[in-house]
Design goal:
Elements (H helix, E strand, L loop, with lengths): L4 H4 L16 E6 L5 E6 L3 H9 L8 H8 L3 H11 L5 H9 L2 E5 L5 H15 L16
Antiparallel strand pairs: 1-2, 1-3
Length: 140
């Protein structure tokens, strides 16, 4: 007799979405030199990371500026020590992605997501967010 999958497993069981593929998150970038950046995105975190990794003439990301234009010595030293002086593009992207983590997820409402980002920035005061315009909030 055939069985339904729902008879074997709970019908509420779902496969978890990998951290980099989750949409609507507040995330943190932590560099090797202890610099940090807090951001938010509606899209998947991997898509936002790829935007931080590419040079856009219209608006250069603070993370891109820190890692590539200001040439963070700690970041590049760790990259070359682990992967050699000329790592492939895929290894470089993988190494870059390792510096990101999700702080809050399932924030599909834009206002709630940006409020959460502003609160976390206010509490942690990451150095790469200093010149980034954020909501002005007061913690009571």
């Amino acid at each position: 007799k055939n069985s339904k999958i729902s008879q074997v497993y709970s019908p509420r069981l779902k496969l978890s979405v990998p951290e980099l593929l989750q949409p609507a998150v507040v995330y943190q970038f932590s560099c090797e030199c202890c610099s940090e950046y807090i951001g938010e995105t509606k899209r998947s975190l991997r898509k936002r990371i790829s935007e931080h990794h590419t040079h856009n003439r219209a608006a250069v990301s603070h993370i891109y500026k820190h890692v590539y234009l200001d040439h963070c010595l700690s970041y590049h030293k760790n990259l070359t020590e682990n992967y050699g002086p000329q790592p492939s593009k895929s290894i470089e992207i993988m190494f870059f992605e390792k510096h990101f983590k999700t702080i809050k997820r399932n924030l599909h409402n834009y206002r709630i997501r940006t409020d959460m980002e502003a609160i976390i920035i206010r509490l942690r005061q990451p150095d790469l967010n200093i010149q980034v315009a954020t909501k002005n909030i007061k913690l009571i």
